[in-house]
Amino acid sequence: MAVVQFSPAQPVRAPEREDLHLAFRTVRARSLALTRGLSSEDQLVQSMPEVSPTKWHLAHVTWFFETFILKAHAHGYRPFHPGFEHLFNSYYNSVGEMHARPRRGLLSRPSHDEVLDYRAFVDEKMLQLLETAPTHLAPELSRLTILGLNHEEQHQELMMTDIKHVLSCNPLLPAAFEAPAPARSIALEDGWAGYEGGFVMLGHAGDGFAFDNETPRHKVWLRPFSLRTRPVSNRDYLAFIEDGGYDAFDLWLSDGWAVVKSEGWEAPLYWTKRDGEWHEFTLAGLRPLDLDAPVAHVSYYEADAFARWAGARLPSEAELEIALRGEPITGNVLPDVEDGAAMLAPMPRAAEHAGNNLMQAYGDVWEWTASDYAAYPGFAPVAGALGEYNGKFMCNQFVLKGGSCATPHGHVRASYRNFFYPKDRWQFTGLRLAKPY
Amino acid sequence: MAVVQFSPAQPVRAPEREDLHLAFRTVRARSLALTRGLSSEDQLVQSMPEVSPTKWHLAHVTWFFETFILKAHAHGYRPFHPGFEHLFNSYYNSVGEMHARPRRGLLSRPSHDEVLDYRAFVDEKMLQLLETAPTHLAPELSRLTILGLNHEEQHQELMMTDIKHVLSCNPLLPAAFEAPAPARSIALEDGWAGYEGGFVMLGHAGDGFAFDNETPRHKVWLRPFSLRTRPVSNRDYLAFIEDGGYDAFDLWLSDGWAVVKSEGWEAPLYWTKRDGEWHEFTLAGLRPLDLDAPVAHVSYYEADAFARWAGARLPSEAELEIALRGEPITGNVLPDVEDGAAMLAPMPRAAEHAGNNLMQAYGDVWEWTASDYAAYPGFAPVAGALGEYNGKFMCNQFVLKGGSCATPHGHVRASYRNFFYPKDRWQFTGLRLAKPY
Amino acid sequence: MAVVQFSPAQPVRAPEREDLHLAFRTVRARSLALTRGLSSEDQLVQSMPEVSPTKWHLAHVTWFFETFILKAHAHGYRPFHPGFEHLFNSYYNSVGEMHARPRRGLLSRPSHDEVLDYRAFVDEKMLQLLETAPTHLAPELSRLTILGLNHEEQHQELMMTDIKHVLSCNPLLPAAFEAPAPARSIALEDGWAGYEGGFVMLGHAGDGFAFDNETPRHKVWLRPFSLRTRPVSNRDYLAFIEDGGYDAFDLWLSDGWAVVKSEGWEAPLYWTKRDGEWHEFTLAGLRPLDLDAPVAHVSYYEADAFARWAGARLPSEAELEIALRGEPITGNVLPDVEDGAAMLAPMPRAAEHAGNNLMQAYGDVWEWTASDYAAYPGFAPVAGALGEYNGKFMCNQFVLKGGSCATPHGHVRASYRNFFYPKDRWQFTGLRLAKPY
Amino acid sequence: MAVVQFSPAQPVRAPEREDLHLAFRTVRARSLALTRGLSSEDQLVQSMPEVSPTKWHLAHVTWFFETFILKAHAHGYRPFHPGFEHLFNSYYNSVGEMHARPRRGLLSRPSHDEVLDYRAFVDEKMLQLLETAPTHLAPELSRLTILGLNHEEQHQELMMTDIKHVLSCNPLLPAAFEAPAPARSIALEDGWAGYEGGFVMLGHAGDGFAFDNETPRHKVWLRPFSLRTRPVSNRDYLAFIEDGGYDAFDLWLSDGWAVVKSEGWEAPLYWTKRDGEWHEFTLAGLRPLDLDAPVAHVSYYEADAFARWAGARLPSEAELEIALRGEPITGNVLPDVEDGAAMLAPMPRAAEHAGNNLMQAYGDVWEWTASDYAAYPGFAPVAGALGEYNGKFMCNQFVLKGGSCATPHGHVRASYRNFFYPKDRWQFTGLRLAKPY
Fold it and tell me: Structure pTM?
C-alpha cells in the first residue's frame, strides 16, 4: 500500500443519515487528533520519496472529498483554492497532472493553517451536502463518502508511519507522542495452530465495505497447514541476529541479499545500539527494545530469511485469511478519539489477550505473506478515475494481512489486502511463521 | 532465468552408458556449433550486466563438469587451471568467491583458444570417467552428467540471446548467422481454444529429468478458461503501437509505466524504423519486420499492457501448463547439429504446423504468464551447492512457458518453469492471450 | 562560495566599543529583517543539497559566536542546547561531527521559535561580554566579533539566494517580498573602458577587514585590456538564446556542453516562458523579464559561451580587481534596515548611476572571471579551526567579483574573492565582457 | 589530456621529403610495436569510460590521416570502409556524429585484423601521396602529417596507460610485456635547486612543432622558488601513507577528501598488499614496490595532500617550465623501436643520471602542477575541425609537465602542456615538491 487504493468492491448499502454524519465526523477528527503533538514544521518534512508530509496527507484526503463528491454533486460548489487540485492529487492521471511525489516536502505554501482552513471548509460543505442532498443522490453520496472515509483511514496509518520515519531522521530523536502504559502481558502458551485446508472461498463476502481488490470471492484448494500462535517477537528476532542471520547469504533471497549488502542492513529499521543495549526508535522517542513485543519494521526479505532460519516458512495469503476469519477483530489498533484529545504513540506491544487460535491476529503488526499481490480470478477494476489505479499496483509487491497498531479501529478485516514492495520497512510490518500441518 | 538454475528434481533413472556418451557429445558439440560464426572478439563482449560473453558461457558450463563431477569423482584429477574456479563460477557462494558479474567482459585472458583447450581437456576427462567409473558410481555420475547437460542447454539459449544483444550494440549491425529459409506459413484459423478447468495436478511427473522447481506435483483448482490458438504476432503488436499503446498510461502497470518513461520504450527491443518501415535486428542482421511471426523481445509490462488493450489477459502458469500438456513437443527450436556444421540464425517464424488445440505452443517465443515465480507447496531445494540457489530467485520474477526458437531441442516440457524480471526484454519473450471460458 | 569562508586576513585594528556594539546589532538585525516575509515552514525547506534552510542559516551564524567567542571567552558560559553544536556546525571537522549537509531540511526540531530564542540568548550574552570583558581581551574579541559579523553577512546573501531557490520549486510561485520601485534607468553610453596593465599589486591592502584568501598582496604583470562599461544585460543574453546559443556546441567548453545536455538548459535559471513571453521568477514572484537589467543566474559555462559568441572573453580576476579599485563602492546591494522593517526583494536592476569607468561595477550581479580560485603566492591559512578550511576550496571553482544585489552593504571590496563551481547557477551571477586593449 | 588535442601552434617549416617519410614510418611502426604482446582480445577491452581499447586507438589515429589528409588531398581517394568515419572519430563534432565513448569496448567488429588492414592501406596511400604530391601542396601536407604523427604519439602513451588499466582489472594480473633490466641507480644527493624568478617568457618559441595551447609566448612575473631535485619517490609516499595521510582530512582539498571517502582510496592506483608487502601492478605484471622509483598513478588531490603533509607545495606551471628549460631532454621515455621488435614494459624507475639542476626532469612520471589548464593571454584556436577542440578542455583540469616513461621519445618539451582532471589516476602521474626560494 505504498500507494493508497480506494475503489470500493461493490455497492454498499446506504447507512442512515445520522450514522453517516457520525462516521464522517469521527474519521475526520481522528486525522487531526493524530497531529496534535506535531508542529507545522514537523508536518512539512519529507524524509524519503515514499514518505509524504503530514500536511500533504491532511490536504490530500480532503481533496478527495472535494474532487469526487463536492465538485461532482454539490450544486454551485467553488473550490477552496484553484491550485490545490494540482498540489494534492496523488496519482490519478485521469484527473490531472500531479506534483511530483518526491517534491512534496518543498511545499511550505500553502501553510499548515491554510490546510486546516481547507479541511474546515470542506467539512462544512460536506456535512451540508449530506444534510440537504435530494434523496435520489443518497446512495451515491453514501457510497462515495464511505469510500472517502476508508481512504482517509488508510492515510491515517501512513501519517503515523511517515512521521515516524521523519522524526527518526532528526539527530535529536524527538518524542512526538506520549507512550502508552506498559502492556499487561499475559502468560499464554506459544505453539502451533493447525488448519485443515480443503476447498475454501477467498475474498470479501457480505454487504460491508470492501475494496475492489478483495473481490471477486473465489474458490481455492488449500492443503492443511499450521500457524504459529504468536507473531515473531523481538526476542525471537534478536536470536536470529545473534546467530549471524544478516551474514548468512544462504538464508536470503538473491534480491534480498543484494539489498542487505547495498544498504548495510544489520537489524530492523529503527533498531540501534546504545551502550551495548538494543534500543528502538518509537513515536514516543528512543526506548529500550521490548523483547516481548512483535518484531516490526522488517522487510519481506528479512521476514523470509528469518522463516528459513527458523525452519519454517511464511504463510500464504489464503492461509492467513482463513485463519483471520476465525479470530475476533480486536487488538492493538489505532483507537477512536474524543474530540480534541491527543493520541498515544502507536507501537506494537506484548500480547494482552488470547484469541481463539491465534494471539495478536489483528493489530500490532501487518504480517507478510508469501503471496504476490495479484488480481483475483475475474477481477475487474471500477470504471473511471476512482478505479483507475487499483490494478496498477499488482506487480512486484507482496500481500500483508491483519492490520497494525497504526491501523484505525474498524478499518481492517480478514479479506483486507495490504501490499508493499519486498524491500519496504517503514510500515509496522512483521511476520508469523507457517509450516505444513 | 536471468540466472541459470540447475538442481534436478529427483533421482533420474540412469541411462545406458552409450546413451549418456552420445548425449554428452551431442550437447557439447552444439555449444561449439553455436559459436561457429563468431570471432574470438565477438565472444568477449559484454553489452550489459545481464549479458555474459560467449567465451564465459563456454567456460562456465565446462567449469560445472570440472567442479561437480571431475574434482569430486575422478581420482587424482588436477584442474586445468587454478584460476578458473574463481573466474567461471557464476553465483555459487558456497563454492567460492566469484568474479563480479558485470566485469566478465574484461576477461581478455584466458583467451578464446585457451577456453577451447579447457573444453577439450574436460571433455576427454569426462568421457574417460564415464567409461571407467566403478559401477556403484554410475547412478550418481549419470545424475550429475544429465544435470550438467541440462545446465549447458540453458546456457546455449543464453548464448544466443546474449550475442544477439552484443551484436545489436554494434553500429555495423553484423549478421553472425545465416538466415533460415522463409517459413512455409500455413493458412490456419485463428481463434480461441477452451479448457474446462476443475481439479488439476501441476508440476513434473514421470521419471524423465526435471529441475527441482517443477516439484512437488500438487493439486490446484482451476476455473474454465480459453487461450488464443496463436501467440500474438508482430502484426497484432504493431496495431497496438499504432493505436498509441505506448502513450496510454491507463493500459500499464504502474511500475511498467515508470520503465516505459525512463527507458523511452516505443516498440519491442530490436525494432527500428528505416525509411519509414519497421525492421528488426536478428541474428542474421537487420531485416524487414516479419508480420506473421510471433512478437518477441517484449517485457512482462508490455505483454500485460497489450493484453489489457486487447480486452484479454495473460494466462496463469497453471493454465498454460495444462494446455501445453495437450500439445506435441515440437516446433521452432534450436536443432541438434552435425559435427562441425554451423547453426542457422534462430528466429521466431510464422506457424508451419497446426497443433492439437494451439499453434506454436512450443518453440518460437517464451510466453509470459501472470504468475509470479514462487515455490510450489512443499518445495524443498536440493541440499548443498547444487541446490543452493534454486529457491533464491523466487521473488520479483514471472514464469514463462513453452520454450523459444533458441531453446535446444529436447530441453523443454509442459512443467518447465522459465523466469525473468518483468522489465527484461533480451530473451525471445512473447505472449498468448487468455480469457474466461 | 558554495561554502562560506571566514578566516580573517590579518589582525584588524580594534574599533571603539560603541562601534562594535552598533555593528553587532546592525548585522544581527538584518538577518531577522530578511526573514520577515517567511513563515517558519518556508524557513525549513531545503530544495537541493547546495541550499540550506533559512532556519539553519539563522542558527549556524549564531553557533559561530557561541562556539568561537562565548565558549572560549565568556567565563562560565553554558551552551543554550547541547545538541546544537552538532546540528549547526557546517564543515569544521576539527570542531566535531557535522549533520550531513543534504539532510538539513529534515530538522523540524528545533523549531523556528527555539532558534529565535537561541539568537536572543546569544545576542544577550555577546553584548554582555563585549561590555564587560577585561581590556586585554578587547583586541581578540573585536577580531573574532568582526569575523563573525562578516561570516553572518556572507550567510545573509546565501539566505536570499537559497530561499529564492526554495520558493521557485513551489508550483504556486509565491512572492515572499515586496518588489522595489522600478529603476530610474539612465541613458548612458555603452562602450569599452581601457586599462593599461603593467606591474600591478593584487590582493588586500590597508587595515580594514579582509579574508585570508585575499592575501598576501603580490605583484603581477598585466597586459593592457578593455572592459565593457556595462554588464551583459537580459536583452543581450536573449539575443544569444535567439541566435541558437544553447544549440551551438562549438561555443561551449566540453564540460559545459555535457551539463547543457544532461540538464536540458535552454535559458538562465528562473527564466520561463508564459504565453510566449519570457518571465523570470524573483523574490517578488514571477515577473516579465526586465530587458535592461543585468543577466543573472548564469553558470560559468554560460558566461563563457556567451563571451565566445560575442567575440570577446571573460576578464581575469586581476583585470576586474584593478578596474574595481577605480570605482566607488556603491550600487544595488542589500541595504541596512531600520529595526523591525521588512526588506524589499533584492533583484538586479537597470543602471541608475554612472561610475568612473564602469557602470554597475559593484552590486547587481557577481561577475564571473576566467580565473580559477587558487591560492595567492605565499598564501598561508590561519591556524586552527577558524582557518581550517580556507584553502580547502581552492580547486575546481572560479572567482567572481563585485558583489550582487544580495550582498550586504559594506561587505564587498575590490579584493574580495567569491567563488563557485562552474555549473552553479542559483547565486546572482552574471558577467562583463573583456577584450585586449 | 583525457582527450587528445592536436592543433599545431603555427606553420611548421617543411622538412625534407625523406625526413618526413622516415618520421612517418617510425611513428607508425611504434604503434604496432606497442601491441606486440597483446592479443586481439586484449585490444578490444574497455575497462572504464576514460579508457579506449587498443584497437580503437590504432584505428582512430589512422582515421586522422584518412580524414584530414587523404580525403582532403589525395585525388580520387576512396575510404577504406564507409562506416569507419563514424566509429573511429573521437570528438570532432564538426566532422560527424561519434560513436559514444563508453561504448567503444563493444566493437568486436571490425576485427583486429581488419584494423591492421586499414592501417596498411592508409600507410600505403599516405606514402604514395607524400611521394607524388605537387610541390605547392608540400608545406600543407608536411604540416598535417607532422600534426598527425604528434597526434599518434599522444595516443601511443594512452595505449600504454589504457592497456595497463585493462590488464589490472583481470584477476589473473597478466604481464603483457617483458620487464626492463633493473635501473642502475646512482647515488646522488637529494636536495633543493633554487631559481631566481623575475620576468620570464612562457610558452613555445622557435620553429619546431608545438600544439596551439603552448602559445602565444607571453611575459610573466615570477617570484624566486626552489624545486626538489628528485621527484617524490615510492619510499617518500609510503611514509605519507604510514603516517596516516589518507585519514587526515585536514591535509586534503575538500573535493579531494570527498573522492578519498567515496572511492575508498588508501594508496596510489595499482598498489596492493600481498602477504603484508606492498606490490604494484605494472605492464610486466605484479611486482614488489620499487621504493627508489618515483611514485606514479596519484591524482592531483593526492599530490596536493602529500605536498601539504611534507610542508611544501606543488610547483606552478611557470616554475616547472622554467626549470625544464634548463635540463637536457633525455630520460626514461618510450624509445623508438627496430622494425618488428617488441617493447619492454614502460615503468618509472630509479634515477640513472643526474641532470643540470634536477634529476628525472623529463620522463618517468608527468608532474602535477598547481596551475589550472587555461588559455594563455591572447590564445586563439586554429580554425576548423582541427582546431575545434583545443580550447574546449580549458576548464576543471590541471597542467602536468615533463613527460613520462610512456611518452614517446622526442614528443615532449619544456613548453608542453599535458592536462587531466584532478581525480584522474590511470596515467603515469607523480609530483615534485616546490617551496619559496
Answer: 0.95
